[in-house]
Each structure stands twice: as structure tokens, then as C-alpha cells.
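pipeline/complex-builder :: batch 7 item 3
reading input block
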Amino acid sequence: MSEIREALLNLEKTARLLEPTPELRRYAQSSVIAYSEDFLDRIETVKTYVSDAGKGEGLLDSPIVEEGIGLDAAIELIRANVDTPGLNPASGGHLGYIPGGGIYYSALADYLVDIFNRYAGVFYASPGAVRMENMLIRWMCDLVGYPAESSGNLTTSGSLANMIAIVVARDGRNIKSADIPRSVIYLSKQTHHSVDKAIRVAGLGECIVRHLPLDERFKIIPSEFAKQVVEDKAAGLNPFLIVGSAGTTDVGAIDPLIEIGEIAKREGLWYHIDGAYGGFFILTDEGKSKLRGLEIADSLIIDPHKGLFLPYGLGVVLVKNVRDLQNSYSFDAHYMQDAFAGTDELSPAELSPELTKHFRGLRLWLPLKLHGLAPFRACLEEKLLLAKYFHAEVQKLGFESDVEPELSVVTYRYVPETGDQDEFNKRLLADVIKDGRVFISSTMLNGKFTLRFACLSFRTHLRNVDTLLAVLRDSVDRLDRSE
Ligand SMILES: *Cc1c(COP(=O)(O)O)cnc(C)c1O
């Protein structure tokens, strides 16, 4: 036998370790399933925030080396270092920031996707995978009221979706580098910071960025926007982009979407709407009426890993006219000449920065197909009502909460009879987090330290909100007594 054949057979022996035997697969599956079942069995009772279990340092004691370790040892490393310390976003007690989801059938979909590893970047390679993603994009375009020529992309997150859209806006308004210093972008002080990041990444960091003044409910004032555009044009500047929010992260405010759209249209600006947090409330009657105007936007984003309770890893950008998306992202490559010949179905690779991509469509399709829309709708409606309930109940405990919740975020603060108000609320926040049964976060509103209630986990129900109210009541009592 030739040396080369012998060497190959030797390498194959070790290389084949990458394909576990059926017995090893069964063993691995049962260990992983046992672990995940235990996690789910305990999800209603475990703490939402764990502050006393280290910070994952144990991982460093087990470096990456030539020899593998057993699955049980690996799971133990994950349990102790990843799944225990810090915030548990899978818990219904997560009422801070914008809570995520983690619905089960998405996990099974991800498992299947990774096993068959279909190439979802181009239609030619996997017509079924691409058709499924296009069908989901069509469904979401219809949901927001977009026309037939609209399309979009399933991306990893809202931030990436914003980035894709800001680039499309730049190219759609033909902003070249020489135009940048005199080109104007309009945001609000409440615009999500991922938009600022996208502006910089898109090479627009040296544009003039105006943070429009807000009304008492933290919404853009359309007349102020219109006035500023007129002034800027009169000064010889080039206003080209306005970003509205369909649910700000901080307070859940929805900008006056229709009025802003009318001004944008009249003045020739690209209109982008960030609906990462609020967009899917359109599935409810209340949300649908509050989100009127989404369909006017030239581009918009919505986050299934927020509003449809998916595990992290799915944001969506929608663009009203697919030609704008193609204009920014289509490409030519000789080595792919076969792939794009004669297909009429669009491919994600022509519509996004990605080529090879995770087939993320299945983690959205499978739960939608298995559950149907009704439970999603009910869950979103429940979140809106829980926010109203919390808003009413927290005031009965003596908290200030002036702004009626528009979606599922409530801002509130306690006003002690004596002492520094901000300090009191900071201690209250620390107290609640230390207790661990629920997790809340804070923000600064009009210069005041303010607590936030953000309700979006599919596991958050009345029970969790009552727990938060009880924890707040006990903490206030304790802090009041220690004054
Ligand atoms: C969460 C959020 C984003 C960013 O989305 P990620 O998925 O976290 O990247 C953008 N805009 C708003 C309004 C958000 O709430």
C-alpha cells in the first residue's frame, strides 16, 4: 500500500471521531434532554438574577486542548459557569431592559437546522429553505401593510436589521462621501443607540445628526421636525433621513408615525421606523390601532426575538421597495454564476450583507405553524394588560408613575418623605435585584433616576407581576425604616 493511502487511513481514524456513533448520539441526546428538561421543570422557581455564583471563571480552568472531555463534564461546566451566574432571561421574572423569549419549538427547529445544515443563502442551493424565509418575510410585510414589491431579510438581531436599513437609506437617497458633511439625519433623544451605531458603521458619522425635541410623553413633535427640516433646507443643507420609533426601549413610546411620514414624504426624506420592541404588538387590536402608519415607512425593523418570544438570534428588516435593498446588497461573483441563473425567487444573499448564513427561518416557522397565531396574540395582549395592571397597582403602593403605559413598559419611582429621591430608588433597585425573584432595570428621565417595568417574556404572567409588587412593597418598608 502506498504511503499516502496509509497516512490517509490513519488520519481518517481520528477524523471520524467528529461523527459520533449511534450509541454515542443516543447517550448525548439523553444527557442534553435531561439537562434541558431539568432547566424547564425548575424555570418557575429559580431566581431571575444570581449575583453570588461567580462570573464564569471556571471555564478558564478547562482550556481548549487536543483531547476532548466527556459530555457530562461539559454540561457541568455549562451549568456552573453559563447557566447560573447573572441574569436568567428565560425566566418570567425578567422585567428589565427588554425581556427576551425562548419558546421551545424554536430550540427544536435550531436543532434540526443544524443537523441538516441547508444552505439558506441562495435559492438554487436550497429552494425550500429560501422559499420558507421569503414566505415569512411576505407574512410580515402583509402584517405591517407593505405592498407587493416589498421584501426584507431575516437577520440576527434588531441592531443588524437597523444597520442594513440605514445603508439602504443612504444609498436610496444617493448620499456620497462628498455629501456627508451637509446631509442631515433626524433622530429623537429616545432613538435606540443601535441606530447611532448603524449611522457610524454606514459611514454617516459625519452627517449632521439632530436629536428632535420630545413632548411630555417622550414622542417626537411633528411640527418641530417639520420646522427643523425647512430651516435646514433654507441653510443649504441636505436633510435625507428621519428615524421614528414604534415603541422606544426606554419608555415604550410610539412616535406620531403618520404625521412624521407625511412630513418625510413632502420633504423627500427616507423614513425608517424602529419597531424592534413594539412592532409585533400589531398582532393585537390595541397595538394595531396604535401602530397605524408603520406601512408609510420606507424601511422598518421588527424583532421576533423580542415580540414573538423567540430565543435570541432573530431580527427582521423590511424594505418597502425591494429594489432599494437589491441596490445596496446585490453582487456579482464569477464563482457563483450558476447559482443566480434563471431563478425568480429572491435569495437572502442578494438582499443582505451575508452570503453563507444560518437558516434562521425554521426557528420562526416551526413555532408559528405548531402553535398558530392565537397564543402569540393572547400573550401580547396579556403583556399590554399586565402593564396597565402594574401601572395602577404600583401607584397604590405610593409610587409615582405619571405616564400611562403605551405598550408594555411602565416607568415609576418612589418618592420618600425625606432624603434623596434618586438615592432611595437606586437602593430600591439594588434591593430588588439582590432578592433575585424578579429582575428590573432603571433609566434617567428628565434628569431623575427612574425604575422601569418592561414586560415581554412569554413566561411573565400575573403571578410574576404580583411578586414584583410584593418585593417592591417589602423593600420600601425596609428602606423607609432604615432611613
Ligand atoms: C432591542 C432594540 C434594538 C436592538 O435590537 P437587538 O435585537 O437587541 O440588536 C433596537 N431598537 C429598539 C427600539 C430596541 O428595543
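note: The first strand starts at residue 49 and ends at 50.
queue -> next item
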